Amino acid sequence: QVQLVESGGGLVQPGGSLRLSCAASGFTFSTYVMSWYRQAPGKLRELVARIGRGGVSTNYADSVKGRFTISRDNAKNTVYLQMNSLKAEDTAAYYCKATSWDYEYWGQGTQVTVSS
What we know:
- By secondary structure, the chain is mainly beta.
- Helix content is 0%, strand content 52%.
- The chain has strands at residues 3-7, 10-12, 18-25, 33-39, 46-51, 58-60, 68-73, 78-83, 92-99, 104-106, 110-114.
- The strands form two sheets. Strands 2, 4, 5, 6, 9, 10 and 11 form a seven-stranded mixed sheet that branches. Strands 1-3-8-7 form a four-stranded antiparallel sheet, with no helix packed on it.
- The chain starts with a strand and ends with a strand.
- The mean pLDDT is 97.
């Protein structure tokens, strides 16, 4: 049974940091590209960051470049999103996604709220 379980969300003040984790099971994690997406109320889901199978290649949305860092640990079947200098506009539900040539899986999401 495929599972992607996000954790680490919560309420943080502007300028603060959070580290999201996504624990994967039920598929060969190291063969999947992993991504983080987010969706704010009333907005479309958008790509935040992506990391290649080996953990070397990364891509970021312009809005988070220099503030967020995606990483993965293939031994632990986990992908991370370190979020620094958080802003109110980062408030959203954050989802991880696993993608291969012929499959994709989504987690259930974790809420991040940036507010004073």
